[in-house]
Amino acid sequence: MEKISVAVVDDHDMVRKGIISYLETETKIVIVGEADSGKKAVSLVKDTRPDVVLMDLLMENGTGIEATREILSFYPECKIIIITSFYDDEQVFPAIEAGAFSYMLKTATASEIIKAIEKAARGEAVIEPKVANRMMDRLRGQERKLHDELTERELEVLKCIGEGMTNQQISEELYIGVKTVKTHVSNILGKLGISDRTQAAVYANRNGLIKKP
Predict the structure, then answer these.
(1) Looking at the domain covering 149-206, what would its CATH class be?
(2) Which of 23, 62, 100, 120 could form a Cys-Cys staple with 39, CB 3.0–4.6 A?
(3) Rounded distance, CA 64 to CA 56, Å?
(4) What pLDDT was estimated at residue 94?
(5) Which ranges of the chain have pLDDT less than 50?
C-alpha cells in the first residue's frame, strides 16, 4: 500500500515533535519534513511535495494562511489541513478562502488527526464541528443580510415567489403590472446573487419569508 507523505508545520517545538512522534507510529504515513514558520513551510513543500501538510495558523515569519495560499499557487494538489487553537471567524474564513482543505483544532486526538490525514489523501475534507457550526452561523447571517437589501415591494414579490405564484398571479395579488413584476424579479435575483425563480423560492422558504403558513 502506498504511504501518505506528510509535512508538519508548527512554531511550537513540543507540539510539532508531539504530532510527529505519533504520526511516525502509523505504517500508512511517512513524515517528509517539518517547519516552524510559514516561509520555511513553503520551501519544505517545494522540496518534498508531500501529499498532506499539517499547518499551524499563527506563526512568526509567515502565517499559515500566507503559506497555504503560496503553496497552493504552485502545488494545487497538496491537501493542507489547518490544525490550530483558533476557531473564530477572523481565522477560519481567511484560511478556508486561502484554500485550506480541512480545519481542525489542537484539541483533536491523535486518532482524529490520523483519520483526517487519511481522508485528505482520499480527497475527503474534515471540518471540526465547532468550526462547521461557526461557518453555518455566518452563512445564515449572510443570507439574512442579502434580503435586507431588498426594497419593501421586492420583499413582497419574493414572498409571493416563495408561495409559487406566477408573474400574473403576483400582479393580481399586489395590484401592479406584469412588466413591473418582471422588473422586480430581475432585481431580486441580482441582489440575492441567484439565477432563477426556483432558487428564489427556496431562499424565501428557507428564510421564513412566505406569507402563508
Answers:
(1) mainly alpha
(2) 62
(3) 6
(4) 84
(5) 213
